[in-house]
Protein: CBS domain-containing protein
Amino acid sequence: MMRVDSMLPAIRQRRLVIGHGQQLTEAAALLSDDARHMAVVCDADGMMVGVVTRTDIVRQIQHCQGCACTTMCADVMTKEVITCRPDQMLEDVWSTMKQNRLLCVPVVDAKRRPLGLLFASDALEALLSEVEYEEELLRDYVMCVGYR
Structure:
């Protein structure tokens, strides 16, 4: 059984944080890369207070007049966020992500400080890799090759 913390190096590489008092245009700049879907919004103490997604930005931009959008991230962020902790089982987190149709979830520590983002594709790849390894072990056992 694999835990989320086994993927921390990749999760930390995708850590994308923005302050709750920063403008939405700054979040848009952070999320302009194709591989970035979500920024974690933190308060002054570094605690997660919500997330801003590309969808949130697009939804808000339709109300802005020209390029002078001064909306703050805190005004459009999603406050009720599904998160996970490093000590959780990856399979459980994957089930939650699948059930809620999430592309990624923030990984937070016990004080709700963001560690990074877990992407559904990475979770699925790790889980499939684990199953493939178990299959190889079982095949070797059945064929009397022994364990590796």
